């Protein structure tokens, strides 16, 4: 598919602004509801080529122990060896391998996601939300995207059977990204 919209003015290097970015997830719990959470500590950079998005790239590093589901006991369990084994694997990383423009404002970012030392290729569809000059003179860009992974593919296998059938925690986990990034001066 050929698209005519390019963004040459956006070309440059960007740093993800953690105070205005959310890296979150959603998993089904007990087959009847959803648990939402996020990671509060992460860093990332992007090299954007607005004229040729295929030349763009992104890297993100997430501190596994910053997981936050608004429940201390659940968070402690998620940090344990049952799930993220954060003492042994303190970081979750994503390094892009390709960026493909799929529409005027949509992009597929494919890359290597590493959780618990297991690396798998994932594609995250992103929507470009726009650019703005903030009150401090920074050029900001925004992107939103999500993708669903199977946590068992990354060695996150703990579960408990329910008496009524099914399991306590879904295998499928939706990863959510609401990103604000600041262009380097």
UniProtKB/TrEMBL annotation:
It comes from the Bacteria. Signal peptide: none annotated. InterPro entries: Lipid/polyisoprenoid-bd_YceI, TTHA0802/YceI-like_sf. Residues 13-182 form the Lipid/polyisoprenoid-binding YceI-like domain. Belongs to the UPF0312 family. PANTHER family: PROTEIN YCEI. This is Polyisoprenoid-binding protein YceI. It comes from Amycolatopsis thermophila.
């Amino acid at each position: 598919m050929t698209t005519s919209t390019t963004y040459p003015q956006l070309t440059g290097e960007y740093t993800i602004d953690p105070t205005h970015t959310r890296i979150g997830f959603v998993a089904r719990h007990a087959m009847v509801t959803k648990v939402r959470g996020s990671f509060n500590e992460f860093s990332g950079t992007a090299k954007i080529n607005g004229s040729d998005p295929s030349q763009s790239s992104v890297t993100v590093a997430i501190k596994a122990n910053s997981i936050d589901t608004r429940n201390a006991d659940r968070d402690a369990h998620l940090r344990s060896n049952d799930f993220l084994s954060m003492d042994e694997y303190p970081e979750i990383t994503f390094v892009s391998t390709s960026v493909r423009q799929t529409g005027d404002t949509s992009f597929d970012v494919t890359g290597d996601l590493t959780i618990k030392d297991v690396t798998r290729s994932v594609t995250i569809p992103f929507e470009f939300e726009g650019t703005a000059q903030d009150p401090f003179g920074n050029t900001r860009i925004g992107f939103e995207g999500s993708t669903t992974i199977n946590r068992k593919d990354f060695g996150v296998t703990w579960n408990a059977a329910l008496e009524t059938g099914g399991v306590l925690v879904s295998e499928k986990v939706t990863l959510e990204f609401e990103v604000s990034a600041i262009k380097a001066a």
